[in-house]
Amino acid sequence: MTRFTARIARTKPAATFAMAARARALRAAGRDVISLSIGEPDLPTPPHVIEAAYRASLDGQTRYPPIAGTETLREAVARKFTRDQKLPVGPKNVLITNGGKQAIFDAVMAVVEPDDEVVIPAPCWAGYIQVVEFAGGAPVFVPCPVASGFRLDATALEAVITPRTKLLLLNYPNNPSGAVADAAMLDAIAGVLRRHPDIVVISDDIYEHLIFDGDYRTLAAAVPDLADRVLTMSGVSKSYAMTGWRLGFCTGPADWLAAMTLVQGTATAGVSTISQAAAVAALDGNQDLLAERRDIYRRRRDLVLAALSGTPGLDCPKPEGAFYAFPSIAGLIGRTTPTGRHLATDDDVAEALLEEALVATVPGSAFAMPGHIRLSTAAADAALAEACARIVKFCRAIR
Ligand code: PMP
Fold first, then answer.
1. Going by C-beta distance under 8 Å and a sequence separation of 6 or more, which residues neighbour residue 330?
2. Ligand 1 in reach of 69 Cβ (< 6 A)
3. How far apart are CA 268 and CA 274, in angstroms?
4. Quick one: which of 149, 132, 180 has its CA closest to 141?
5. Is 99 left (phi over 0), alpha (psi -120 to 50) or beta?
6. What whole-number distance in Å separates Cα of residue 52 and Cα of residue 56?
């Protein structure tokens, strides 16, 4: 028997992908499941991006790239960070990664020692918990309840900081809650960070272009005196509907980027040259599609909110950004479905929704906030409407 590492023993598969796989399996078995489990745009990758990838392949851009990314893409990303983030950086301050996910992996592996504490505002993307545990670090959650708009409260942040705190992970617009950063929150966080000069920050801005209410703000630009310990990351997956191209990027302090390049060089030797050429076309091409697509997601958010409003047992706050709804299902806990299934936890609710209503969602506990479920609103209008109708019918039948 092969003995695997402790690292493998403590790493769990992402609940989002696990739920998506179950939905696929049920569909393959002939059941009409609607999957709102995974955070993936249903819209197509823009044609000019696909053409750029095809041309790059024919042009012979088919060799190993530099580990940190091609010069052309690093320049395009530097322009993008200057344009969208108001972070005037050069190509040497940019690292290209296999999806935003690898930027976070590289960054965490570079700074987190075993038993270091990593502060994560909750609810949070499930991927953070996975990577921190993989690195041997300890996730420390700061609850950000719906009453505070799911935003991080500086006093609550200060309260969890210890001498072992190494890293703070910020994600606005937030997956799963949709919360958007405001100036007051970033100022208050900055006040705490100034008192703790050894803490570094990852700002995960992957949903930067998906804001319906409020404006986009990012920590390193809002609070320039902290920029030398903030890694700002984003990518093309969500904004340009390019999840399968696996392309992310980041900027930050030179020494952190150098350490991350070492991690990446150890793991993957850089990112597909074809995907990098495609990303140049996405970032340098017409940006009007970002607002057009944001408006589609806003309409879908409104559709879901309207469809779920007034549903017994369910309370759905209005997401300000990203493409998820994160209703509380507290009113369903302790109740029973018509088939006699007892609902003790959000896991039970997600399980019952899948089995009895044929809608795949993800329980809030996967995002460190039990008592909720997450629905992805990045699905076609008709699928969303049908899924909501099934959820409402399910909730009305609960005893
Ligand atoms: N950060 C957050 C908050 C996410 O929701 C996701 C994708 N679900 C990622 C990072 C990773 O995205 P990708 O690797 O596709 O760029």
1. 313, 315, 371
2. no
3. 15
4. 132
5. left
6. 6
**Yes or no: domain 6-37+289-397 corresponds to CATH 3.90.1150.10:** yes
* Token pair 């109708």: residue: 389
Return d(Cα 91, Cα 69) in angstroms, integer: 10
Q: Which of 170, 166, 205, 199 is nearest to 185 (CA)?
A: 170
Is the CB of residue 205 below 6 angstroms from any atom belonging to ligand 1?
no
pLDDT digit string (tens) for 25-53? 999 999 999 999 988 899 999 999 999 99
3-state DSSP of 377-390 = CCCCHHHHHHHHHH
Closest CA to 102 of 200, 237, 208: 237
Domain boundaries, the chain: 6-37+289-397, 48-284
Q: Which residue's alpha carbon is nearest to atom 12 within ligand 1? A: 100
pLDDT in tens, 319-339: 999 999 999 999 999 999 999
CATH topology for 48-284 is: Aspartate Aminotransferase; domain 2 (3.40.640)
Kindly state if the Cβ of 178 falls inside 6 Å of ligand 1.
no
Task: Look up residue 150 and give its two tokens.
Answer: 């799911």
Q: Which of 206, 234, 374, 377 to mutate to test the pocket of ligand 1 (most atoms within 8 A of CB)?
A: 206
Which residue is it, tokens 């609940």?
Answer: 15
Q: What is the largest CA-CA distance in the chain?
A: 64
Tokens of 370: 């039990």
Binning the chain into helix, strand and coil, the percentages to the nearest 5 are 50, 15, 40
Buried b (16+ CB within 10 A) or exposed e, 360-388: bbbbbbbbbbbbbbbbbbbbeeeebbbbb
If phi > 0 it is left, if psi is from -120 to 50 it is alpha, else beta; for residue 251 that is beta
> Is the pTM here over 0.90, yes or no?
yes
CA 132 from centroid of its chain's CA atoms: 15
In angstroms, the CA 171 to CA 199 distance is 16
Report ipTM for this prediction: 0.99
Residue 3, number of CB atoms within 10 A of its CB: 6
Is residue 3 classed as helix, strand or coil in its secondary structure? coil
Query: Does ligand 1 lie within 6 Å of residue 101's CB atom?
Result: yes
